[in-house]
Amino acid sequence: MYRRFLLVMTLMLALILSACGQSTGQTDSTGSPAASSAASPDASMMPEGSASPAASTGAATGGEPMAQAPEGSALRAIQDRGKLIAGVKYDVPLFGFLNPTTNKVEGFDVEIAREIAKKIFGNPDAIEFKEAISKNRIPYLTDGTVDIVVSTMTANAERAEQIDFSDTYYVAGQSLLVKKGSDVQNIDGVKGKVVATVKGSTSEKNIREKAPEATVELYDTYADAVQALQSGRADAVTTDDIILYGFQSQNKDQLEVVGGQFTKEPYAIGIKKGSTELTEVVNTTLREIKDSGRWGEIYKQFIPEQEVPAVPPQDWREVK
Ligand code: GLU
Fold first, then answer.
1. Domain 174-258 CATH class label
2. 233-266, pLDDT tens digit by residue?
3. How far is CA 217 from CA 92, 204, 234, in A?
4. Which atom of ligand 1 lies nearest, measured to the CA of 202?
5. In this structure, which CATH number among 3.20.20.140, 3.40.50.300, 1.25.40.10, 3.40.190.10 belongs to the domain 46-171+266-308?
């Protein structure tokens, strides 16, 4: 009697287990968006190599890994770890944006970082992304949170005292984003108005210099600054035009970029001071993608509404 009971229980258990196995298998293979976004809703918990894979970014796949760098170098530590750690924006459309549908970061900066991972490891997916908002970029490099910062970062002499910069990979210029129909149409129009921008950005410094009679409100992220504009707490947002164009394209009916460029912002990759071999491989990658036409492809992919410009000059000091 007892034996038969045991047999029935074992059979039931086996049936339950096999049913569970099947349903797990189905969830995995269909990969419903709801299930995957619920599984990892927190951007900071994104898995390694979480950028879009080659199929969705157009990045070339594979290649030979580079030779081992000298023991003790920053580059060798990255090679030994088996992945590059890059700080990028998560809220800047076109450059570094955490796509809520795919839960992956994408954009011009992200793609450049993936090209560097490809150069080092022969694999653009050998990379982990961390969110580096403007005020965190230099501390993240100096404390070793990230290996490189590719985060709409302007290279300038003041920052170059604390970190090293690669060659230039993009040239932006500061501008203004306003609500359509706003009486602010250029830099002179912000006199007596509230202008939102981000802590730790060149935009903050520049707007104070160029429009001392504006009230500057500071936010942690550009998404928050745009929110302030949309809710009427600010009359304009100021930062690099290409960041503003990204927000404009998400809100074409409401927002517009005005006033042209009133600064030049050469973007370069931030690297901890003294990381000679790493800086060298970053610059080799940038020179190769500029020479091969890959730079133009990346531009077209993420900034399709603009004509592809000439590649930027190597040295950020030449951008005036
Ligand atoms: N490119 C400027 C900077 O590095 C403004 C954009 C930003 O804050 O990322 O400060």
1. alpha beta
2. 999 999 999 999 999 999 999 999 999 999 999 9
3. 19, 9, 8
4. 10
5. 3.40.190.10
